[in-house]
Amino acid sequence: MRIKVAKNSGFCFGVEKAVNKAFDATKQNKENIYSLGPIIHNKQVIGKLMETGLDVVNSVEEVPHGRVIIRSHGVGKGIYDQAEAKDLTIIDTTCPFVRRIQNIVKDYYHKGFKIAVIGDPTHPEVIGINGWCDNKALIVQSESDIPKDLGHIEKLCIVVQTTMPLARFETLSEQLSQRADHVEKFDTTCFATKERQESAKELALEVDAMVVIGGYNSSNTQKLVDICKEIRPNSTFHIETASALNSHDFKDFKSVGITAGASTPEWIIQDVIKFLNKLNN
Ligand code: SF4
């Protein structure tokens, strides 16, 4: 069985930076270090961080004192204000791609634009972006989210969640644009996501089966699964760690491709490669 890993897979630079900063912070001092939500959507990495002293909390209110890590998804302005009011030390790992969206939203909101975010309203990144325009953004994930009674908008600024497929941004931003006189739209999708999706597609076309590694709650991993399933509907396997491969049978496949979401660390990818190599032996 031939095993091939996708050209672009695993940790993106934003996640790698966030995870390294978190490990550095716990190494310096393992007392009073908290993250607002899990740093990344990967249970195994979070487990390791917790072993080194990190506490995961859901809100600033839960932090008594010390240091608080803002994860790569970013947060709204109100969270910075709350942390400062409690005199907490902020370790900010907001990804620069997300920061760019927050800055656009902040600027255009202050210039009097209505803000539209194309994305999942329940995703932390989108919730954080909305927090830079007083939580007044119109959040649109599909055509049905565009209110029929929206009325005509004078000035509209459109941004998109970093992990949204480009095609969705193009369709929905086109529909939203018809409802406004003046539109400023920004393709704020992230190249790391695009690269991973394109590499997964290329590889799925080349091999008999695909193994997609990443958290079951990771949206960017789920998108890789969807892309691979379109090409390999019966031979795409989504796993979190190598042990989950035990329940799948690979004997009929001559070639297996491996890809991994942006929050999957290299050691988990290597474990999977080792596992598949063992099957070969
Ligand atoms: S997927 Fe893109 S936006 Fe998200 S953390 Fe990685 S580099 Fe940043």
What order do the helices and strands come in, and which of them pair?
Elements: E1 2-5, H1 13-28, E2 33-36, H2 43-51, E3 55-57, E4 67-70, H3 77-85, E5 89-92, H4 96-110, E6 114-118, H5 124-130, E7 138-140, E8 153-160, H6 166-177, E9 180-185, H7 191-206, E10 209-213, H8 219-231, E11 236-239, E12 255-260, H9 266-280
Parallel strand pairs: 1-12, 2-3, 2-4, 4-5, 6-7, 6-8, 8-9, 10-11, 10-12
The protein binds iron/sulfur cluster.
Describe this structure in words.
- With 281 residues, the chain is α/β, with parallel strands linked by helices.
- The chain folds into three domains: 2-10 and 191-280, Cobalt-precorrin-4 Transmethylase, domain 1; 13-94, Rossmann fold, CATH 3.40.50; 97-185, Cobalt-precorrin-4 Transmethylase, domain 1.
- 40% of the residues lie in helices and 20% in strands.
- The protein has helices at 13-28, 43-51, 77-85, 96-110, 124-130, 166-177, 191-206, 219-231, 266-280; strands at 2-5, 33-36, 55-57, 67-70, 89-92, 114-118, 138-140, 153-160, 180-185, 209-213, 236-239, 255-260.
- A four-stranded parallel β-sheet has the order 1-12-10-11, with helices on both faces. Strands 3-2-4-5 form a four-stranded parallel β-sheet, sandwiched between helices.
- The longest helix has 16 residues, at 13-28.
- The radius of gyration is 21 Å and the shape is flat.
- The model has no long low-confidence stretch (mean pLDDT 95).
- Bound molecules: iron/sulfur cluster.
- Iron/sulfur cluster (SF4) binds next to helix 1, helix 4 and helix 7.
